[in-house]
Amino acid sequence: MALSTPSQNAFNSRVTIPDEEIVALVEPHLSGARVVSIVDLPYGFSNKNKLITLDAAPHRCVIKININTDEAFKTRSEVELLNELHEKTSAPVAAIIFNDADAQTYKFPFFISEHVSGVCLLDFISKINDHTKRAHEMARVLKEIHKVKYEMP
After folding, report:
1. Residue pair 24/75 in contact by the 8 Å Cβ criterion
2. Share above pLDDT 70 across residues of the chain, in percent, rounded to a whole number
3. Which letter does DSSP use for residue 45 in this model?
4. pLDDT per residue over 104-142, tens digit each?
């Protein structure tokens, strides 16, 4: 099953965001913490996802930049849903540190979140061979997620 279309991947690879811009976007929202390193995260589709290591708490965060400005509403919806899940469930969902879903401070909508340690869902599915264990863990998290009543704007 294809996770994204070739055109999405081609578009994503054509857009580059220099590390200096990432630092300028992140540091003002982290109470004096400084960026130590920036690493691309996989599975970005039409987003640029970066793992950022810092010299002080929270020590790691993620910036997600939606480079498809026609879909800015998705960034806003994602931030709202992540906030709801973080506040109302015990599911491992990162807290939002800052969001500019309306692209007021940067040319693309983006948000900064805490980093949640663990394995992303796609890697989890491919690496856990015990189907019963995988099903139980996914059901546990889905049960938590379904506690939240969310309507798309």
Report:
1. no
2. 89
3. T
4. 999 999 999 999 988 777 777 777 788 888 888 888 888
> In whole angstroms, what is the distance from residue 36 CA to residue 56 CA?
10
Using omega within 30 degrees of 0 as the cis cutoff, is the peptide bond preceding 58 cis? yes
Task: Kindly state the tokens that stand for 144.
Answer: 């938590």
Tokens encoding 29: 């929202």
Going by C-alpha positions, the residue among 8, 114, 7, 118 that lies closest to residue 64 is: 114
Query: Which candidate, 51, 80, 83, 49, places its Cα nearest to that of 64?
Result: 49
Q: Are 45 and 77 in contact (CB under 8 A)?
A: no
Q: Tell me the C-alpha distance between 81 and 67, whole Å.
A: 20
